[in-house]
């Protein structure tokens, strides 16, 4: 049974895995046996991440690559193939959010979020799939969101992108399933990372951020998730244990989507 979850001999690319959810996912895949490549845009983030991976005994290979740049993505995928081997597992994790009321958001700001959160998973998947087909199969995991299912004020671009990412996941599953490629999504709930730090900031009087309290009330687990909560689901979807799971979004949300919310 343990072999079902083994990633020994596999090559994994986790985009945006300098810290946060991507780092935890890459760590999990490494501990299950995979060779890890990751990318980000900032050299400082990459150097810090390489040191953190090394502290955990992981010799990750880091790339400075903006996932929205098709040429950079192509070069990164080609270099991974030359140095680590053809990619078996792709985690499209890199993402940003802008929290701006829709009518105040510029077209450029909207486009930037969609470019990174939706267009880039298309670009990276497009670069990786031919190698997977040649290799006889592969695993693609797209990091979706509660906003793949729900909306809320100020996150129009992010929700549109993550909703699109859910459907891109289902379409890749549909189009490439016959090549033994499984494409699934992970939909994290509210996870304590730099991306959500503004929603958890202590108030001037030392009290909890109103949004922090709101999320605790909307989550049956009554806590924020941690990046470590995503490690098991990621290994499951990256391994042979999920070979007949395709086009599925696995919500790892502590029960948010099942729950109407605690009475205030
Ligand atoms: P985070 O802490 O902001 O980390 C984002 C990572 O992506 C960083 O390593 C960043 O590094 C990289 N990145 C951003 N834009 C990039 C680009 N254009 N090219 C390459 N790398 C890029 O975010 P997170 O909370 O870990 O979230 C990771 C993913 O999970 C995102 O897709 C997010 O939408 C999703 N998610 C998060 C939550 C949550 O509650 N935190 C919940 C559901 C889904 P550089 O800045 O150095 O490029
Ligand atoms: C927000 C949060 C969320 C989380 C996540 C929830 O502002 O609502 O950033 O969008 O990042 O996507 O699943």
From TrEMBL:
EC numbers, comma separated: 1.1.1.69
Protein name as annotated: Gluconate 5-dehydrogenase
Keyword Calcium: no
Family that this chain belongs to: Belongs to the short-chain dehydrogenases/reductases (SDR) family.
Gene Ontology biological process terms in this record: bile acid metabolic process
Single GO MF descriptor: gluconate 5-dehydrogenase activity
NCBIfam families (UniProt xref): PRK07097.1
Record keywords, A-Z: Oxidoreductase
Pfam families: adh_short_C2
Key word Membrane present: no
